[in-house]
Description:
Helix content: 25-40%
Shape: elongated
Strand content: 15-25%
Number of strands: 6
Order of helices and strands: EHHEHHHEEEE
Largest sheet: 2 strands, parallel
Protein name: Integrase zinc-binding domain-containing protein
Bound molecules: zinc ion
Radius of gyration: 29 Å
Number of helices: 5
Organism: Cirrhinus molitorella
Structural class: alpha+beta
Amino acid sequence: MNEVHPIIIPSRHHLATLLVSHYHEAVKHQGRHLTEGAIRTAGFWLVGAKRCISSFLHRCVICRRLRGKMEHQQMAALPAERLQVAPPFTYVGVDVFGPWEIVSRRTRGGGSPPKLTLIDGL
Ligand SMILES: [Zn+2]
């Protein structure tokens, strides 16, 4: 009977957002069609339901995480030395490391970002 005479709700109303949220979780974050079907089965008719539910699903964190594509680490190309077969320690690289001397200054316009200087002689 509810489906025959549903309660008409405009999609911009806050109640529509609450209904979409509730029934979207009730159908376990499935797609727009199942969410829309659950809302209509419960006896509600959202005017402009397609757009309302789609925009809600677009903002749903769980759906975005479940349907997101795999991200890949962006790396620079390896230097030519690393692509050649060579005995160990033929080519050695050293990362720059500390100890660092940090100079923090106060200026009239507020603070300035701290300045890092590598201490020589260590
Ligand atoms: Zn979701």
